[in-house]
Amino acid sequence: MQTIVQQQKRWYEEGHTKSYQFRKDQLLRMKKMIGTFEKPIIEALKFDLNKSEFEAYVSEIAFLKSEIDHHVKHLKQWMNPQKVKAPLTHKGSKNMIYKEPYGTVLVIAPWNYPFQLALAPVLGAIAAGNTVIIKPSELTPTVSWVIKKMVEQYFSPNYIAVVEGDKKVTQELMEQPLDYIFFTGSVPVGRKIMEKASHQLIPVTLELGGKSPAIINKDAAIDLAAKRIVWGKFTNAGQTCIAPDYLLVHHEVKAPLIKAMKKYIHKFYGDRPLENPDYVKIVNDQHFERISSYLNAGTVVSGGSLDEKRQMIEPTILDQVNWSDPVMQDEIFGPILPVLTFDHLSEVITQVNNRPKPLALYYFGESETDQEEIMTSIPFGGGCINDTLYHILNPHLPFGGVGESGMGSYHGQASFDTFTHLKSITKQTTKFDQKFRYPGSSFGLTLIKKVLG
Ligand code: NAD
């Protein structure tokens, strides 16, 4: 690991990664690599998580390709040094912000979208002119192996390297003099990453998780809300960081909402979802046990079947749930959807604000006043009004959490900015020298008070 980091740092210092042409070529090379390896990637996702070709393509491959196109299209403009204005005290000078890469960055990935989440940050790192070490998740070993093979075939390890392994490997990597760490994963591990990074003062982005609510008010378009919630929750069997974790539904529309959600579960996954060849499995035994145990409280009103051997849990709606039940304590990260009710929107605001700031929040309702109230009264990473997950697909919207759901953001220009240090420069004139700043200037204080206040 020491050798990889040293070699990357040397290569970076030699300046190979910095030109516009190089960055653009590498982004296009990434796209070519993904295209060439499309089949093995889809097969690996099937093997590790039972993802269908449709889900694998849409949520992992197509996402990366469109991010690459967006990066290539805007790269030149993002890279350009930015001229800025200056106060009168700076007369004669030019003031610029240079976009400087950090150097050698580490990208640590989780298992739930194991391909997309390992490579999406890398695009930003490449665009910003860094070298990269990727640490894929050990819980999806086939995908991890494919990532290693493809990167080795397309890139020199001096530039992009893949290091496989578990937390020990990550911890060892973090002993190295890295210039930036981009972590996607759970809140408890995020804390450890930040603590460890603090020893060397390595800057971090933390893309974490948490409990993301979907709020359904009585003026919502119920059928459409049900359809979009079922899609957002049960895609990837609920193993999505921004999936609606639980519902807060106005008591007057709870019954029709549940009825409509049942209809869409049936429509999307069939009579027996556990036998649907395209339904995603739970990643491992430990997570299967953890998620299944949530069924011990509340009343199952839809689904509830388990297949322990194949680690599958049916799309499940859980009614009669309390805030104190285990299912409401931690992020569910599985296909179980608890339903709680409310009478007034003010209760919702208090209840959500009493807990850690969510990564996502979804509000369903037609009143623009209520929409605005929710958007401005609850802090959360990002979200949708009258939809779920869709905000993540717009490259013009930075994606990230706040508080316990994370710090920093990426996607589109936010990815470039994340891996870029803004270096502020004043280029002073030598044609004249204003005297007011020097000791002994008779009018210096008067002028400074006038200009700076
Ligand atoms: P995790 O935190 O267990 O692991 C993530 C990565 O960290 C893995 O590569 C793992 O090897 C490494 N790791 C684990 N323990 C470590 C330690 N002690 N020290 C150093 N490295 C360690 O997360 P996970 O189970 O892979 O992913 C699920 C979590 O990730 C959920 O909480 C989910 O919400 C979150 N997530 C967030 C986003 C986002 O974009 N915000 C996206 C996907 C998943």
From TrEMBL:
GO cellular component: cytoplasm
Matches recorded under InterPro entries: Ald_DH/histidinol_DH (IPR016161), Ald_DH_C (IPR016163), Ald_DH_CS_CYS (IPR016160), Ald_DH_CS_GLU (IPR029510), Ald_DH_N (IPR016162), Aldehyde_DH_dom (IPR015590), Aldehyde_DH_NAD(P) (IPR012394)
Active site: 207, 241
MF terms in GO: aldehyde dehydrogenase (NAD+) activity
Positions of the Aldehyde dehydrogenase domain: 16-425
CDD domains: ALDH_YwdH-P39616 (cd07136)
Keyword set, alphabetical order: NAD, Oxidoreductase
Family: Belongs to the aldehyde dehydrogenase family.
Name recorded for this polypeptide: Aldehyde dehydrogenase
Species classification: Bacteria, Bacillati, Bacillota, Bacilli, Bacillales
